C-alpha cells in the first residue's frame, strides 16, 4: 500500500479514480469549490474533514457569505475568496494548480472559472459525484440510492418515497436538490438504509458515475434552456440518471422520450425497465384501475394479477393527474427494493405535500384559491391548469427563455380571465394575444416601479384584488405562474407566501378571516 501512494499522487487521474470511499486517501488533494450555498458549503466542509486542501470561491460578499467563510476557515478550509473578481480565474491551491474542482449546481459550464478548469484538463465534479465517492465508510451503513429527476414533481416524489420507506420501518431521508444537502446526509453518524435523492439537471450535468438501486425520470418539458443551451442538452443531462442503475429504471409511459432514455442507457445486468401511467397498466407497469393505484411490475404473476398499492383518496382532497403520476413513480422506486404494498399505502396516507404545490389557501363564495407558486415553468403550470375547469389564472414572472404558446393553446377553453404579474410579462401576454384573444387579461397595479421583493408583494395584493373582481361562483383562482420568481420575489416560496398573505387580507375584508 505504501508503494502505491506516491505513484497515484504522481498521476492525478489515477489518484482521483482511486477515491471511491470515505476511507480512501484524500489527504492533501488540492480542490477548488465553487459556490457557497448549501451544497457548496457542505462540499467544502466534507473535503476539509477528509484532509483535502480546499479553496472556496463565491461571487457574493454579503455578511451571510462572510460568516460562512469564517466557519469554513475554522474547520480547516485553506482560503475563501469572495467577490466577482475571483470567479473569473481558476485559483491556485497552496501555490499549486488544483487537481479537482467541485462546483455548486447553479454554476454554468461556460462560467469563466469552470471554463478555465475544463481548458486546463482539471476534472469538475458536482456535490452528488462527491457524495457517491464518499458514501462507503467503515463502521456505517451504506445506503441504497433511489434517484429522481424530471422537469416537475421531483420534490413531491422524493417526499413520497421517504414517507413510504419510513412506513416500511427503514431509516431513510429525502435529500439532494431538496432540504438536506446530499453530503450532509452521507455524513450522518449512523448512516441510512435508503436515501431518496432529488437530482436537478444542473446536478446531473456535473455527475459522472453513480449506481442507484432504482432511478426515475418523471417527465420532460422545455426548461432551463438558458443554462443548458438547448432542450436536447437539457434532456441529455436528465438521461444520465439512468446510467448504471442496478434494479429498475422507471419511466413515464405517457412520455415516450423517457422510454428512449432507458433504452439508450448503459444499465447493469438484470436491471428492468418499468413504466408508470395514470391509465390502466399493462404488464411491467404501475397504473390506476377503478380508483386504485396498482402494481403489475413487482410480482411473480404480473401477466394475470395486480397488487393494490392504495386509493386515489389516499393522496388527499385534491389529486390532480400529475400528482397521481408522482405517487406511482415513487411506488415503483420503493417496490424495486422490496418495500411491501401496505407500506406504499401507509406512506401515501402519511405524506404531506410541501407548501406552494397546489395548496388550497381559501374557499369563499364558492371560489377556491389555490397556491401553486412551485409551478415555475409552463410544464408545471400545464399540470395545474389541467386539474381545474373554470380558472382565473394569476401568472407571469421570469420566463427563462421558454415559449408559452402551447400552454395557452392547450388551456384556452378553461380560462375565465388572466391576471399578469412579473416585472416583464411580455412573453406570456403575447401568447395570450395570439391564442386567447377573447380572454380578459388584467395587469396588476405595480409593474414599472422596479423589481424586488417589496414590489412583488404589492403586485400580488393587486393581482388578488383583480382576480377577486372577476371570479364567479364555481371558479378557481389559480396562482401558477409558469415562470421563475426572481424578478420580483426572493424565491418561489416568497411568491407563494405573498399570495397567501394577500388572500388572507381579502378574506378578512370579506369578514371571513380567522
TrEMBL record:
- Superkingdom is Bacteria
What are the Mur ligase central domain coordinates in residue numbering?
148-333
PROSITE patterns linked: FOLYLPOLYGLU_SYNT_1 (PS01011)
E.C. number: 6.3.2.9
Which residue range or ranges hold the Mur ligase C-terminal domain?
A: 356-482
- Which SUPFAM superfamilies would you find in this protein's record? MurCD N-terminal domain, MurD-like peptide ligases, catalytic domain, MurD-like peptide ligases, peptide-binding domain
Pathway field of the UniProt record reads: Cell wall biogenesis; peptidoglycan biosynthesis
Q: Name one GO molecular function term.
A: UDP-N-acetylmuramoylalanine-D-glutamate ligase activity
| Keyword Nucleotide-binding applies | yes
The catalytic activity, as recorded, is:
UDP-N-acetyl-alpha-D-muramoyl-L-alanine + D-glutamate + ATP = UDP-N-acetyl-alpha-D-muramoyl-L-alanyl-D-glutamate + ADP + phosphate + H(+)
Q: Which UniProt keywords apply?
A: ATP-binding, Cell cycle, Cell division, Cell shape, Cell wall biogenesis/degradation, Cytoplasm, Ligase, Nucleotide-binding, Peptidoglycan synthesis
Coiled-coil intervals, chain numbering: none
Q: What Pfam families is this protein classified in?
A: Mur_ligase_C, Mur_ligase_M, MurD-like_N
- The enzyme's first-digit EC class, named in words, is ligase
Principal localization reads: cytoplasm
Localization terms from the record: Cytoplasm
Which InterPro entries does this entry report, sorted A to Z?
Folylpolyglutamate_synth_CS (IPR018109), Mur-like_cat_sf (IPR036565), Mur_ligase_C (IPR004101), Mur_ligase_C_dom_sf (IPR036615), Mur_ligase_cen (IPR013221), MurD (IPR005762)
Q: Where does ATP bind?
A: 150-156
Family note: Belongs to the MurCDEF family.
Q: What function does this protein fulfil?
A: Cell wall formation. Catalyzes the addition of glutamate to the nucleotide precursor UDP-N-acetylmuramoyl-L-alanine (UMA).
Q: What is this protein called?
A: UDP-N-acetylmuramoylalanine--D-glutamate ligase
Species source reads: Citricoccus alkalitolerans
Q: What is the lineage of its organism?
A: Bacteria, Bacillati, Actinomycetota, Actinomycetes, Micrococcales
